Amino acid sequence: MSTAPRIGCVPYLNAKPLIYGLEDEVVFEHPARLAQRLAAHELDTGLVPVVEVFRRPDYVIVDDISIACCGPVYSVILAHRVPLQSLREVVVDASSGTSALLLKVLLQKRFGLKLHYVTESLADKRSTADAQMLIGDQAIRFHQTRGDWQILDLGQAWSDWTHMPFVFAVWAVHADYPELPALIRKLAAARTAGCAHIEDIIAREQGGDAAFRRRYFGHNVYFKLGQHEKEAMRLFRQLLIEFGELKAPYELRFVH
Question: Are 121 and 93 in contact (CB under 8 A)?
Answer without folding.
Answer: yes
